[in-house]
Design a protein that fits this description.
Layout lengths: L4 E5 L3 H10 L6 E5 L2 H11 L3 E5 L7 H10 L6 E5 L4 H10 L3 E4 L4 H46 L4 H16 L3 E7 L6 E7 L8 E2 L9 H5 L4 E4 L6 E2 L5 E2 L1 E9 L2 E10 L8 H23 L1
Parallel strand pairs: 1-2, 1-3, 3-4, 4-5
Antiparallel strand pairs: 6-7, 6-13, 7-8, 9-12, 10-11, 12-13
Length: 297
């Protein structure tokens, strides 16, 4: 763990200078501030990896800095610095969220050890939060996919079911536009079977060769395509809608591509990920089953 930025908040220029000399020995970058207000401004500007803050500051105290970080929902590892005899107050800082404390005067080894420990604990907290978020997200996705399976088993009308597939696609990928296009006979022309978002009209014909040429691989090769527009640019969909990012997966039935399922983002230049593609492919398979059942009926 080297290269992290450490923000020192202390009104003593001598101590700030000392820490700015010590911390690079551990491979850390430094920034400093003499007051809590200046320190919080630098937190917003720099988003440091760790904060070393003095218990007593000219405009407030280190405990108030911890409270302000919590109010801003900034989970930045913090180490409190205290004077000799203030260990009791330092324990309050630990309860308030500090990951360690240093008693002045301290040695180089004590500084580097405290910083390393706090960063390690901070990384663990961050990883635990990330994993908890993923578990929650995947659970919501599983429930959404399960609901589509139950809808298919219930014998819901095809049009209503395909609309649910499109809405589920938006939900699990956080897109803002979606459509499901089916091939019409041997002509190769596409028909909008379900849609949600701007520029989409149900049952409207769509020429398969329209839109960005890179999207043709979905129908011609049966492969998923994920695209993000160049900065300031857009991608044209088969429907003529201009978007910032798009994910399309094929609907494969009996060795042929029967259509495609598409989600897009018109405003945010945030690409869709591989997990989004996997979820959309599952939804596309459900759509294929529903279309096949309707054909056989």
């Amino acid at each position: 763990m080297a290269g992290e930025r450490i923000l020192v908040i202390d009104d003593s220029s001598e101590l700030r200078s000392l820490l700015e000399t010590i911390l690079p020995f551990g491979g850390y970058r430094t920034a400093s501030a003499g007051t809590a207000q200046e320190g919080l401004e630098k937190v917003s500007q720099l988003r440091p990896d760790l904060i070393l803050v003095d218990l007593e500051l000219p405009d407030t105290n280190g405990l108030k800095v911890l409270e302000e970080l919590k109010q801003r929902q900034l989970a930045i590892p913090t180490v409190m610095m205290t004077g000799y005899g203030s260990e009791g107050v330092a324990s309050r800082a630990l309860h308030a969220g500090a990951l360690g404390y240093l008693v002045k005067p301290f040695t180089t080894e004590e500084v580097l050890s405290s910083v390393e420990k706090a960063l390690s604990v901070g990384h663990l907290h961050h990883e635990n939060a990330r994993l908890a978020f993923l578990v929650e997200t995947y659970t919501r996705h599983f429930r959404a996919i399960s609901a589509i399976g139950r809808a298919l088993a219930s014998g819901i009308e095809l049009g209503a079911f395909l609309q649910r597939v499109v809405e589920a696609g938006l939900y699990v990928t956080k897109g803002d536009g979606a459509s499901l296009l089916l091939r019409e006979g041997s002509s190769g022309e596409l028909r909008m079977a379900a849609a949600r978002g701007a520029g989409s009209t149900i049952d409207a014909p769509v020429a398969s060769e329209q839109g960005d040429p890179r999207l043709r691989a979905v129908l011609e090769e049966g492969t998923a395509v994920r695209l993000r527009a160049a900065p300031g640019g857009t991608i044209c969909l088969q429907t003529g809608v201009q978007v910032k990012a798009v994910l399309q997966v094929p609907l494969k039935a009996e060795g042929r591509v029967a259509g495609l399922l598409s989600v897009s983002r018109q405003e945010a230049e945030v690409p869709f990920g591989s997990h989004d593609a996997e979820l959309l492919a599952i939804l596309a398979d459900y759509a294929v089953l529903a279309v096949g059942r309707e054909t056989q009926a």
